């Protein structure tokens, strides 16, 4: 017996005072409604209604049950309505996880735009350089730079990540321009320390058809990409920066790309999420919005012609 269903039929019968009307209200046959009420009486071991050919009235036990279950049934109905509305309204809580490296440079302006357009969505954005398991961390949407996430999540590629060696015009004027990868060892260089391992990331280069990694001694090392970018802009050193950080500065003349024949593009920025059919409308709307703003957005990478220039 479906007890919740039987109690619902009992409450509607008591409220309407008629089993046939309660059946119509519940979208079932009178026979099915009568059977549900009798099953409930049998399970409880009490009679809930006095029955005559003309009249249906509550017994004392039925009256007590009605008083006890009506508030709980109303709360259950409200909860179901809220869940149903979450499929129809762009409102409610939305948990987003992303690496700090992508936060301010790529994601935050679009997230703020979404928040302004949909003020009824309560955004909870967590910047964390560790990979987020959506289920374990109760996140709705994640972003990741690198390779596509595994583990059953749906991933959509948004942007390529180019690793570009670059320096400010002021640095090059003072220290000269390296003409090869080997000449970098004679220059001041920045380093990026990975948050998840604590190790300094090697620089990587495309040489021929292979990706080659080099350990570059850092005169200034940080575990924050924005901080590293600021150091390069300040003319303190040469850095290898992601295109999402460097592109706007290259276009603005604040940075000069170097050794562009060796730029790599093996990684990308991804958005990932669980199956769309299981998502409330607020989550689907956010996913579509971020894809629309970021997918192949040229603000965050450089064309080959721009690198050559």
Automatic annotation (TrEMBL):
Recorded GO MF terms: DNA binding; DNA-binding transcription factor activity
Record-linked InterPro entries: LysR-type_TF_proteobact-type, LysR_HTH_N, LysR_subst-bd, WH-like_DNA-bd_sf, WH_DNA-bd_sf
Domain HTH lysR-type positions: 1-59
Entry keywords, A to Z: DNA-binding, Transcription, Transcription regulation
Database matches in Pfam families: HTH_1, LysR_substrate
Family: Belongs to the LysR transcriptional regulatory family.
The protein, known as: Transcriptional regulator, LysR family
Organism: Paraburkholderia piptadeniae
